[in-house]
Every structure is written in C-alpha cells, then in structure tokens.
Write a structure and sequence with these properties.
heterodimer, A: alpha+beta, Alpha-Beta Plaits, B: mainly alpha, Formate dehydrogenase/DMSO reductase fold, 68% helix
Chain lengths: 300, 421
C-alpha cells in the first residue's frame, strides 16, 4: 500500500467511525438500559419458585431504589374453584369517572403520559351504537339529562383475540378467567392492541412516571407492579386485591353501587344472582364471539 | 497438501473477498451515490437510537393509532419482495428468453426488500432488546396461533431461499461451471409458492382481526397480491434501466415490455378489486363503513387521509390508462407510469390500508395520525439501507454475469477488468 492510499484509507475509516459513533450517541442518554439480569430474565411460566423468589427480590429492590418506598411484591396465583365475573348496572352508573381515577391510583399507571384502563362513554338515550359515544364529556355535574353512561375496560374475554395474536405468549388467560401480561416478556409489537375489539389495552410509549408519594406499594407480579417503557398493560381485575379476597378498586369507589364483582362458580355469589335473575344483560360486541366475562345489565 | 474441502473453502472465501472488495470500487458517481446513501442510513440510525432511548413516544403513534408508517412500509415491501416471482414464473415455467438473464436482479431485489421488511418490524418494536423471545427454541413462539409468528417464519424462509438461489447461481457463474439443477431448481419452485405465502400471511395479519371491520375482509389478501405484482415489477423496470445505463449490461427493450404487460394486467386487477371493496363498503351502508368514510370522504370533521387516498386513486387510474394505451410502449412514458404505480400503491397500502383500520377506535373515538419527523427519518434511513444493499448486490453480480469477475482471473491485481464498468 502506498503512503498516499494509506492516508486516504485511514481518513475515510476515521470519518466513518466518527459518524457511526455520533449516530449511536443517543443510546448513552438512555434512561432505562436493560441490565444483563433483566435481559436474560425467563418467561413467567418457566420460573421455578426459587427463581421467582429472586426475581421478586430484584423487583422490590428496583422499586425501592427508584421510588424510595419498599413495596410488598407478591406472585399471587389463581384460586381453585374461582372464575371472576364483573357485572355493571347501566341504570345506576352516573358517569362520575371515580372508577377511572381509583384504578389509576391502585394500579400504578403512568401519570405522565397519562394511562387509564377505564374509559367511560356517554351515550344518548336509546342507543348502544358506540359510534355515537362521547369520550370527553366535561360537565359540572353528572348525570346529564338525555344520556346514559357506559364504562368500558378489559372485558376478560373467554375467547380473547389479544392472547391469540401475541407472537411470544406474553399475554394469556389464567384459570380464574383473568387475562394477564408478563411485563418482562412483552416485546411491544402492539399486535394485541390492534386485535382488541374493546380498545382495552395500553402501551407505554415512554418511561412511565408516577410521583413517589402516589405509588401503591401493595403489588403483584402480574398486576400493578410498575411497568417499563415499551410494554403493554391493561385492566387485570386488580389481581393484587381480588386474589387476596378483596374487591377491585373501581368497585369500592363507585358511589352509585353500579359495579358488582364475584365468583361465577359460586351459586350464592352476587354475580350469580344477577346473571340468573336480571331480565336483560349485554355482552359488549357479543357478535365478535369473544364471550366477555363483563356483563352490563339494567334494573328491570 | 490441501484436501478437496479445504480447497473448496479457500475458493469460496476468495470469492467472497473479491465480492467484498469490488463493493468498494467504482467511479466518482458510484462513490457519491453510496456516500449519500450512507449518510441517510446514519441519520436513520441516529433517529432510531433516539427512539430506542426515549420510546415510541417520538413517533406519531398513539394507543388509538398504534401502527403507523413503519408497518405501512413493511406491508408495501413484503409486496415488492413477493413480486420477484413475477419474473421467476415466466422464466422457469414458461421459459421466457428475454427475462432469463434478468431474473436474478429481481431475486436480489427481493433479498434487499426482505432486509428492509425486517428492519421496519424491528424499529416498530417497543422492546427490540427482547427480540430473542421470538426465536423458536429459546423464546416462546406462539406458532401456529399468532399470524405474526407465521410472518417471522415465511419472511426469514423467503430470505434464505433467495439468498441460496442467487448465491449459488452467481458462484457457479464465477467458477465457470454449469449449476447443478437439483441444487437450485427445487428451491426456485418452493420460492414461487413461498412468495405468494409471504404476502398472503401479511394480509392475514390484518384480515384475522375480527375487531377491525375495515381489515376483516376476505379481499385484502387478493388485493395485496394484485398491488404487489403491480408495484414490484414497476420497480424492477426502473431498476433494470438504471442497471443498463450504468453498467452496459445488455437488457433488451423487449424484456422491459414483457414486464410492462405484467404491470398492465396486475394494475387492471388491482383497480377492479379496489372497486369491489369500495362498492361493498358504501352500498350496503351498514355501520362498519365508518373507517372507509373516514378514508374517502372524512368523518366527523376529520379528513386527514382524504387527500392521500384520492392521490393514490388518481395515480392508479392514470397509470392504468397509460398502461392500456400503446403510449406506454415508449420507455419515457413507461417510466412515468411505473413511478405513478409505485407511489399510488405505496399510499394505497400504507396510509390507505394500515391507518384507517385504527380510525375510529373500536370505542368510536376519532384520533388522527401523522408520522413524526423522527419517524420519517427512520423510514428514510431504512430505505437508504435497502438501496445500499441492492446497489452492493448489483455491484457484485453484474461483473460476474458479464464474465469480468471470474475465478480464472483471480489474483490479477484486483482484476482490473472487473473494476471498470
């Protein structure tokens, strides 16, 4: 190689490498670079109890480091002989959206950007045509004359389209009927979000942010533990509460008593009574064949 | 003493080395072109790194419109890749003479298109660091239930098939031996079926979603194939003329006109299928027409896609008219027609198919979508990357096919004959 061509080659190489380095620079500012431990983490269903223990420990430490609060993170399993069902009384719902905010507080959703699992639709009297729904009604007082309100959240389908389409089994249905997401396995392709007929799924478009004092430290692995950037989340019937014998947060806060929740396999439960005795109840978009475990009913 | 295998290995590595070297050789126009593409690649890489660090919030996508131009480009390019079959079928089934020596350029285009597809899917992921969850064996692969898992298989399979076919034929030509039929003809026929499958599976990705009536239509698959077989060969017509211009590789006008007839028939079918779709949506007038209304005429004061789709329709109809008229036998007009086809179909399949599927949302909310600047840069970067790959493939294959880069002239000072083009 001649001196001249050596110099020329080196100049080209140096410029090229410098340009490449400059292009890669934004990676340096990454706020959430995956550690080797997180990168290698196994799929939920493949974790042995001992490995799960370690993972829960790691999550506890990470949350404490980030929020300054030591959380109580558990891996709650479904109970035998339990299948959860939700019933919502459309005659009673007044559209106050208290459920929306109780859910955000309970489930550690990002406040900025804002993520909410429940969307309350305002519909004109006499129509269930969702095209006519108003999402952003903003009035001084509710209920308004001439309208009724329909809160929509994950319908916990018996035949969930979101589970079918996930290419990596990151979302599945548990034996108690709750469709869950392994936040550490989701690759963020958003195919489930496109598949859901109820627009129930939410994506973390950036790193979620929750004010430290608002963090709910009572957490479940498949439930409300803080999520990371780039993964899906959605309503999970408050797994951290309901699998420990409590009601979901949206039910507890409802001032109208419109929300009922329970075990459909127990013939004496409130939801069994409603489904047996109410004259009319509706499964949203029943023609989809998704078979929701979420029923809307009327006081008739 | 070298064994036969060692010698074969050595020869193959010399071949690869010479191919690699020639990719860096050319006149000033070549350097300018490659340099320009590299700059765009790096700008795209930079934009993607920003997105990786800060999240998909840097795109125009939202929970309402959760797929955007990345998936739109992906869909279009799967079609371009599949369209190579439109050269393979005439050559291998009907023994077409004109296209015989050109079919490899179509297959190389398919390779470049698939590489772009894979890049577009990767940049669309929220957690690209977890891509290994998709690898069968070590990840959790939801096959056969998820259409996306099918897509992973068919796209990578198609890539391998085409790399094998092109690589083997070029290496045989380089060595000056006749390729063994059994070692590539079966793969060619598998690739024909496979080409149809990649675009059908990509259509099923959308068609399979019952909650999105706009996509949940049996005609999407056939429309995808028709539009792919229009835009793909149109792109090849343009590429071949550029090859002819800069390399003196002999490409007959007759070959280009054969491709023109393919584009012609495909465009007629494409427009016919589009008309079917529009009729079904609007005449029956049921509530599922909302997305189409939004797309074609606007809905509740939102008109974001209306100018796009009417541009696409105007381009497609003009192209169709030019294609059926003898005027497109002149190369000048044929080129105009090809550009109209490519742009028209890119819009029709991208902004015209992917985006309106999300608008309004399944709960009736209206939220529009416009790609962000960063997102657009990533797209340009990937297109530049694809063009860079295709140029390199051509830079290697043309001298081999012309007999200037052969085993016989190995060691002749960088083979001066090959350097000149």
């Amino acid at each position: 190689m001649s001196r001249r061509s050596f110099l020329r080659t080196s100049a080209v190489l140096t410029t090229g490498l410098a340009a490449l380095a400059a292009s890669l620079k934004p990676l340096m500012e990454m706020n959430d670079f995956p550690t080797a431990e997180r990168f290698m983490q196994k799929y939920y269903k493949e974790l042995t109890p001992a490995e799960m223990e370690k993972v829960l420990q790691r999550i506890t430490d990470e949350v404490e480091k980030q929020y300054g609060i030591r959380p109580h993170v558990r891996d709650l399993k479904p109970m035998d002989g339990v299948e959860f069902v939700y019933c919502l009384n459309l005659t009673r719902c007044i559209g106050c959206r208290k459920c929306v905010h109780a859910c955000v507080a309970e489930n550690n959703q990002s406040r900025n950007p804002e993520i909410q699992y429940i969307r309350v639709l305002r519909l004109p009297h006499g129509s269930l045509d969702i095209e006519k729904a108003e999402h952003f009604y903003n009035t001084d007082s509710v209920p308004e004359k001439g309208y009724f309100y329909m809160p929509v959240q994950c319908q916990q389908c018996k035949n969930p389209p979101c589970v079918k389409v996930c290419p990596v089994h990151a979302t599945w249905q548990e034996t108690d009927g709750i469709t869950v997401i392994d936040y550490d396995w989701c690759i963020g392709c958003r195919y489930c979000e496109a598949a859901c007929p109820y627009w129930a799924r939410r994506f973390n478009f950036t790193k979620p942010s929750i004010p430290q004092e608002r963090l709910n430290p009572d957490m479940a692995y498949l439930g409300n533990r803080p999520r990371r950037q780039g993964v899906m989340e959605k309503c999970h019937f408050c797994i951290q509460r309901t699998r420990a014998g409590r009601y979901p947060a949206c039910l507890e806060v409802c001032p109208a008593g419109a929300r009922k929740f329970g075990n459909i396999l127990d013939p004496n439960s409130e939801v069994s009574y409603i489904l047996k005795n109410k004259r009319v109840f509706i499964q949203l978009k029943e023609e989809m064949g998704t078979a929701p475990r979420f029923f809307y009913y009327f006081d008739v | 003493m070298m064994t036969r295998i060692q010698r074969a290995m050595r020869n193959y590595f010399v071949f690869l080395g010479r191919c690699g070297r020639i990719a860096f050789e050319g006149d000033w126009r070549y350097y300018a072109w490659m340099g320009g593409l590299t700059i765009f690649c790096l700008l795209g890489l930079h934009a993607w790194c920003r997105q990786f660090a800060q999240g998909l919030i840097l795109t125009g996508m939202s929970d309402e419109v959760s797929w955007g131009v990345y998936i739109a480009n992906f869909t279009f390019l799967v079609g371009v890749a599949a369209a190579a079959v439109m050269m393979v079928i005439p050559v291998y089934i009907y023994d077409n003479e004109e296209l015989h020596d050109l079919v490899i350029f179509g297959e190389l285009l398919a390779v470049a298109a698939i590489l772009m597809c894979l890049a577009f899917v990767t940049v669309d992921l929220g957690r690209p660091d977890r891509f290994w969850h998709l690898i069968p064996g070590i990840g959790q692969f939801n096959f056969p239930k998820s259409m996306l898992s099918w897509d992973v298989i068919v796209l990578n399979g198609y890539l391998l098939l085409n790399v094998h076919i092109c690589g083997y034929l070029l290496y045989s030509r380089y060595r000056g031996v006749k390729p063994a039929k059994w070692f590539y003809i079966p793969f060619v026929f598998v690739a024909i079926v496979w080409a149809v499958s990649i675009h059908t599976v990509t259509a099923f990705l959308y068609v399979g979603l019952g909650g999105r009536p706009f996509w949940n239509s049996a005609i999407v698959g056939p429309r995808f194939l028709a539009s792919a077989f229009t835009a793909g060969p149109a792109l090849i017509i343009l590429a071949l003329q550029i090859i002819r211009r800069v390399t003196q590789y002999s490409i007959s006008d007759k070959a280009l006109l054969t491709l023109r007839s393919i584009v012609q028939v495909s465009m007629l079918i494409n427009v016919f299928l589009l008309a079917n779709e529009v009729f079904k949506e609007f005449y029956s007038g049921n509530l599922h027409v909302v997305s189409s209304k939004y797309l074609y005429i606007g809905l509740h004061g939102h008109h974001g896609l209306v100018p796009w789709i009417w541009t696409a329709i105007a381009f497609n109809l003009t192209a169709m008219l030019l294609l059926v008229l003898p005027v497109s036998r002149s190369l000048k007009w044929l080129n105009v027609t090809c550009v109209l086809c490519i742009v028209g179909i890119w819009i029709e399949k991208g902004m015209g198919l992917v985006i309106p599927g999300f608008i309004p949302t399944p709960l009736g909310e209206m939220m529009e979508y416009t790609p962000s600047f960063n997102e657009t840069l990533v797209c340009f970067g990937i297109w530049a990357f694809g063009l860079l790959c295709y140029t390199v493939f051509l830079r290697m294959s043309v001298p081999i096919l012309q007999g200037r880069l052969v085993q016989a002239n190995e060691g002749q000072a960088g083979s001066a004959a090959a350097r000149k083009h």
